[in-house]
Every structure is written in structure tokens, then in C-alpha cells.
Design goal:
41% of the residues lie in helices and 13% in strands. The protein is an alpha/beta fold. The chain is globular. Belongs to the HyuE racemase family.
Length: 247
């Protein structure tokens, strides 16, 4: 049995509940799933500014629960918020939604599109796509809705905007598969796949399956260099409680 922690780095409990439900449907039944929010941070992550603050909340959760024996982490934000820093904090494998989804998309289609809610996220995601070596085959489009629109009374309108953006990408970008560019879309992947007739990759599902696989193989994050534990030093002011002590 593996213990997998899925951390939504924003404060949207609605998104976290969706993620928890999806995880329990697709995770292997012998694995224990924890779905968590930080105690502080933004309601949603829409661009670099939100991401910077949300990363601190993410790391605070990992610092708290890592000693309890976590076998793998999923960072449930498509911006892969704080993933590199998290890999420095724990030896357990850490996977973000964008990286997990792209690894699946590369195996399923020659060309694919990420559809994200807002235009402010397009450039950050293009940078991630380039980082993961997928820029030749991947395009990023915005549906033109807010991230939080996928909850509550705006959900139907948000879905229609997502569907139109995905159809446009299939038609104009030669995309052969669609990647959902937000954790809050996890509950509509099957519906969109049926409406489009092409593979639809949800980063929540993809990242969970990748982490489950690494955990079952007893793989750990290398501490040899890139993701080594941060060297011990004092941190000051608001961050005094985050100072590294293991490096």
C-alpha cells in the first residue's frame, strides 16, 4: 500500500473535493489518498503573482505531513506550482498536473492542445511546455472564463466556453487530443471526451497514476544535486518558520 498526498495549493475547497472524488475513483483501491489544502493562500491561481504565494502554502503542507510517511505527492495545480521546490523538500516523488498530463499526451497523440481558463495563464503554461520539451507538438489556448467559474452557477457556461475553445483547437491547430489546463476541470473530462471524440487528458488523473507507479516501484527523488535538500540557514520575519534544517 502507498500513501499518496494530493495537495491543491489554492484555498478552493470545492476544487479539492472534486479532486478527492476523482482520485478515489481512479486510484488503486489498496492505496491511501489524502486530498488537502494549505491553511493560507489565494482562492485560485491565475498567473505568476498568485503562484508565488500559493507555493509557500504548498510547502507548509509538505513540511507538516512528510514525516508521517508519504510515498508520493501530486501538486493539484496545472501551473505545477512549487513542484521544483517541493522536490527539494521531500524524497518522495512529486508530480504536477501539467507535467503528468503532457507525458500522457505525448504517448497518445502527435499534436495536442492545452485549454486553460484565462489568457493570463497562456504564457506561463507555454513556458512549462517548453521546459518539458513538448513545445514542438503542443499549443495553449484560453477558454476566456475564470478558474472559479467551473464551480457553482457558472459551471455550465464555463463548460461551453471550454468546449468551443477545444473544438477550435482541433479545427485550427491540428490538435489530435485535448489536455485540461485546470484541476477544477477534473470532473468533466469524460463529458468532453464524449463531445469531442478525441482523447481528453485530465492532469489530476495523469499525475496520480504517475505517482502511484513511482511509489509502487519504490522510486525516490534524487538528492544528488538538482533536488538536494536546501542548505541550513536562518530565514527571517514571516518566513522564520520555514528555514531549512536538513541540508
Amino acid at each position: 500500500m502507498s500513501k499518496i498526498a494530493i495537495i491543491n495549493p489554492n484555498m478552493s475547497a470545492g476544487f479539492t473535493n472534486k479532486i478527492r472524488e476523482q482520485a478515489r475513483k481512479i486510484a488503486f483501491p489498496h492505496n491511501e489518498i489524502l486530498a488537502l489544502n494549505p491553511r493560507f493562500g489565494p482562492d485560485s491561481i491565475e498567473g505568476y503573482y498568485d503562484e508565488a504565494f500559493a507555493s509557500v502554502g504548498l510547502l507548509s503542507v509538505i513540511r507538516e505531513i512528510d514525516p508521517t510517511g508519504i510515498d508520493g505527492y501530486v501538486v493539484a495545480c496545472f501551473d505545477d506550482t512549487g513542484v521544483d521546490a517541493a522536490r527539494c523538500l521531500t524524497a518522495a516523488p512529486v508530480m504536477g498536473l501539467c507535467e503528468g498530463a503532457l507525458r500522457f499526451a505525448q504517448a497518445l497523440a502527435g499534436r495536442y492542445a492545452i485549454v486553460t481558463p484565462m489568457a493570463v495563464s497562456v504564457r506561463p503554461l507555454e513556458h512549462l511546455v517548453r521546459k518539458y520539451g513538448a513545445d514542438r507538438d503542443c499549443v495553449v489556448r484560453a477558454a476566456g472564463v475564470r478558474t472559479l467559474d467551473f464551480e457553482g452557477v457558472q459551471a455550465a457556461r464555463a463548460y461551453e466556453a471550454l468546449l468551443l475553445a477545444a473544438q477550435k483547437s482541433l479545427r485550427e491547430d491540428d490538435a489530435e487530443a485535448i489536455v485540461l489546463g485546470c484541476a477544477g476541470m477534473t470532473d468533466i473530462a469524460d463529458r468532453l471526451k464524449a463531445d469531442l471524440g478525441v482523447p481528453v487528458i485530465d492532469g489530476v488523473q495523469a499525475a496520480i497514476k504517475m505517482v502511484e507507479g513511482m511509489a509502487s516501484l519504490k522510486l525516490a527523488t534524487s538528492k544528488h544535486s538538482t533536488y538536494g535538500y536546501p542548505p541550513a540557514k536562518p530565514y527571517h520575519g514571516l518566513f522564520a518558520g520555514f528555514e531549512p534544517v536538513t541540508g
